[in-house]
Structure formats: structure tokens, C-alpha cells
## 1
Amino acid sequence: MTTLPEIHTSGFFFIADAHLAGRPPGQRLEGYQEQILAKVEACLIEAAKRDMLPVFLGDLFHWPRENPNNLLVALIALFRDYTPYVLVGNHDKYEARLTTDVSLAVLEEAGVVHVMKEAGPVLRAHMPGANVVLGASPDGTPLPTHYDKEEDETVVWISHHGIGFPDFRDRPIRISEIPGVDWVVNGHIHRPQPTETCGQTRWANPGNIVRLTFSQRSLKRIPAASYWVPGCDDIEHWPVPHLPFYDVFPDQDFPVEPEGQSSESRFLEGLERLAWKRTREGVGLRQFLQDNLTPETPETELIWNLYKEVTDVQNK
């Protein structure tokens, strides 16, 4: 078995999808950079108080590169005392690739973060009453089909995937038992989801720490981080300090959300959004298809074949 780095900690403090940015994304108002930096700092301070390892569940950045230097300098200064573990999300990559010109690579080179960019076990944590293996599946990599753990080990696996939680049953990854894996804790899906158990494996999706969407749902939601300790029945949420909704979003009517909208029209609307965001947010077509196509539908194979044909031509 691979020799893993070993640490001593009381638990894992999960920080999902921070989407750090120098300018406000979407309909967020001015002041976004300072507000999200304050949230991240509050999470790191709370993790330290609890003697827990801070773990970012992907999408540390909103735009993968060309973030302002003052944001990167602030993060280097902030992360230096904590050296958190950071999972690679789809927004952290440029054109679906993790290259040396993305902002996350700057933080890694500065030595202030541990970047989890390959699928597999990451470290072994000695916690009160338990030995815990932390594993990771960053964006674009598969979840394990099984894990050969030792008898006295608990395995917590983190991911940044489209997983079929209750509000997202059409996502491509189905919740199922993964032999040898006790927990899967997922980022990527911003809306908090109830934890589900399938056989030995519990699946959790805590939701992100920042409100990005101007909607009734965001109005009602309290941004929160979460933490895991050995023997817990579920992850615990920790509300992140945040401003009132209308201090960070415009005071205007919400857009009408049509009822009974077909999955086909949602798919087409998603493609339209992808075309608009392509150059601004680095959201790749491959990731969009992974998140929205289901293996059971007859058009899935056709769409994937078209995708492969187009990308093969572009790469020649």
C-alpha cells in the first residue's frame, strides 16, 4: 500500500466552492472580493479553533486565471498559516486543463496550499479514536469503485462531481455503495442536499459558502461550511458570517421561474449559458455534458460521439 503523509487532527473542516474573484460574478454587487475573502478567513479561523484540517471541495476560484494580483497576494498571506488542502474544481481549470498559468498554480508554487489534482488517497489522519484516510477525486476524474482499507481505518472521499442527490436525480453519477469507502463528501453542487446512505457508504453534499445566484432559493439560504469527525451520523453545518441578501444583490424582482420546464429545454438553456460563459468562466463543454447527460437516454451516445469528433478535429 502507498505510504501516505500522516497528520494529527480532530476532524475535517469542509469549505465548498468559494468562487473567489476580483470582480463580482453574475448579479453580485461591488465588494465581492472583500466579502468572500472574509468568509474564507472566518472558515480557516473556525477550523483552527476546532483543531481541524481545512479542506476546500473545489472551485476555489470563480475564474481560473487573470485574477488580480491583490487577490492572490491576500490569499498567499491568508493561507500561509493554515496550508489548507484544495481539491481541483472545474472553475479552477482553463479549458478543462490544470496548467501553470491558472491562479491555483500560483498558490501551489508559493507553497501555501496542498493541491489535490489527481484521483486517489491523499493522507492518513490520526484523529481521536480513529485512523482516517482522506481520498480525493478532482473534477474530471472518476470516483473509486472500491478501496482496500485496513481493518482499523475509516475512509472519507471528497469529490467535485455531478452526483444524483435528491434535487439532482438526473445527474450522471448515481449514489451507490463504494466498498471500502465510508463517506463521500461532494462539492460542485451549490445547493445543500440531505445525506444519503447506500450500504456502507454515506454521501454528503454540504453546499457552497457563497450565494452566487439571484433567486428566491438563495434569499432563503444561509451560506455554511461543514465539518466531519469520527463516529458522526452526519456532517455538521457551520453558518458562515455573511451580509443580508439585499446588501450583496440588487433590490429588484426575481426572474420568473417557469414550472414544468422540460429537461430538454433546460439542457438547451444550459448550452446557451455555456456559450455566454465560455470565455469568462472557463466552464468547459465536457464538464457540462458530464453534469447533464444521463446514460439511459438514447441521445447521450450520439451527443458524446459528436463531442469527441469535434474535439478530435480541433486537436489535430
Note: DSSP finds eight helices and 13 strands in the chain.
## 2
Amino acid sequence: MAKQLTEEAVNDVLSQIRDSSTPLAASAIAGDSEVVLLAIRELRRRGLITGKYLDDSTRPGDAYGRFLYDAARLEAV
């Protein structure tokens, strides 16, 4: 992935998930879709959100695991 994930992006995605009254899909979160998916992956790794995750089978991933292709039913823990 060419995009870089910042702590600001992670916090922004978490805020959007927390502020929603219903579970969110990755596509409903504002921001660059690639960065949003990286942030969701990081939030999942930290145990701060739950949801359904679809790994991207076309890319091998990195030291933090598989990249995500999509995510749905995202809720803050």
C-alpha cells in the first residue's frame, strides 16, 4: 500500500465509528478509502472496534497482517 497511516487518521475513523448511532460500513466513513481501511485494520488490531472484515486476497499484507478489502458492521467497543 502506498498510503501512510497516521495516528490522526486512526483517531478520525474511530471518532466516526463512535459517533454513529448504527454500525457502519467502511464505505460510509469519510476519507480516502485506502487510509480508512488501514485505520480500520489498526483499530481492529488494537481491539477498539468490532465488525465483519474481508481480507484482500490479492495482496500479501505486511508485518501487521492482511490488508482489508472491505469491512462492515463496525462498532466501537
Note: The helical segments are 7-19, 33-46.
## 3
Amino acid sequence: MKSAITGIHPSGNLTRKMTIVQQKPQPAYSIPVAMVADILLGGTAADAAAVAMETHTTSGQTPNKTSILSQPPTQR
């Protein structure tokens, strides 16, 4: 599971980079319709996406479209 999640995962205009450094099984339990096994994953994730933005000049020129780069990744 760790190797399947760690990596770059594109989805449309969004790209998510995930690095799983820890996986810790939690106690399993049952409910009337299923057996539940939780796994706590620890690591980092960062998203990047190109965002189109219109800019307007004060001299009445044609608006330009520019791309804004995403912020640096944050760790949790």
C-alpha cells in the first residue's frame, strides 16, 4: 500500500505528489454489515495546479491571461 500511494498522481489540471513514510495498523473491529480494518498513514502531500487569471491594465489594453504557480509544498 505504501509503494502504491507514494508518487505523483495527476488528475486533470491537478497534480498531487505523495510520500508515505509510515503506515501503522489500527485495531480492527466489526459492525453489523462489515469487518473494518483501519491503517494510519503518515507522510507528506503537495498539490500543484495551473490557474488562469485575467489581468487588466489601467491603459485599457487587452487583458492578458497568465499562469500562477502553486505555493511550495507544506508538510503535515
Note: The first helix runs from residue 2 to 5.
